[in-house]
Amino acid sequence: MAITITAFENSPDGGRGLARDMRVRWALEEVGLPYEVRLVSLKQMKEPSHLALHPFGQIPTYEEGDLALFETGAIVFHIAQHHKGLLPEDENARARAITWMFSALNTVEPPIVEREQSRYLVGDRPWYGELLPILEDRVRVRLDQLANRLGASEWLDGTFSAADLIMVLVLRRLEGAGILEEYPSLSAYVARGEARPAYKRAFASQLAVANHDRGTKDAKRQ
Ligand code: GTB
């Protein structure tokens, strides 16, 4: 069944793999499923046809036959449930991997996004200089705990799983913050994820959108 996902027409990160469609692209690449990408503008995301797919007017969405999904956690889980390679076969190991998926999304990601968003939301307030270190310390609390649990292991629980895929991309959201670098084991964990061939294919396909866009703009300027 053909799969179509949506992604930013103009990703604010210039295609550096930080937008959440990267999670879906990477999962599809890991299990070897081909997919189409429909690019949408910020305006189109708020129009009825996109809102019918995504009630919150965001990307990514996932269409497969008459099934339409939103929320990257659910999409990656759906892919992992139906194709080998992203969740262990053993029932308990599978349940633990799913637990880690939820913890990446519900426990580790929120303080990271809170810190990042604070600059856009209140970066111009006189007290922002006091708030930022507080938010950064909230991130460090989670990274300390995660690094303790990961120890010298390669992946969160045995072999690579959908949980690592999501956790690696959640940690990548710290790019430029100068915090992840305080945790050599977590930096190495992210690097291991980025070294996977499926990650590289997903990253290249997201970057190609931005490069194509730049090429088109350059051609128009000439
Ligand atoms: N919980 C949802 C999920 O996991 O699917 C969240 C989806 C979401 O946040 N989508 C964002 C979106 O559509 C794009 S990924 N935003 C537009 C809107 O809400 O109107 C968030 C994102 C965007 C850009 C960067 N970047 O450029 O670095 C990183 C992450």
Spatial order of strands in the largest sheet: 2-1-3-4
The proportion of residues forming helix, as a percent range, comes to: 55-70%
Assign the structural class, choosing from mainly alpha, mainly beta, alpha/beta, alpha+beta, or little secondary structure: alpha+beta
Separation of the first and last Cα atoms: 41 Å
Highest CATH level, the class of the largest domain: Alpha Beta
Spell out which ligands are present. S-(P-nitrobenzyl)glutathione
CATH A-level architecture of the largest domain: 3-Layer(aba) Sandwich
Mean pLDDT level? 95
The total strand number stands at 4
CATH-defined fold name of the largest domain:
Glutaredoxin
SS field, number of helical segments: 9
Low-pLDDT stretches are: none
Overall, the morphology is: globular
Main sheet summary: 4 strands, mixed
Keywords:
Glutathione S-transferase family protein; four-stranded mixed β-sheet; Glutathione-S-Trfase_C_sf; 222 residues; Glutathione S-transferase Yfyf (Class Pi), Chain A, domain 2; 2 domains; 9% strand; alpha+beta; 9 helices; Glutaredoxin; binds S-(P-nitrobenzyl)glutathione
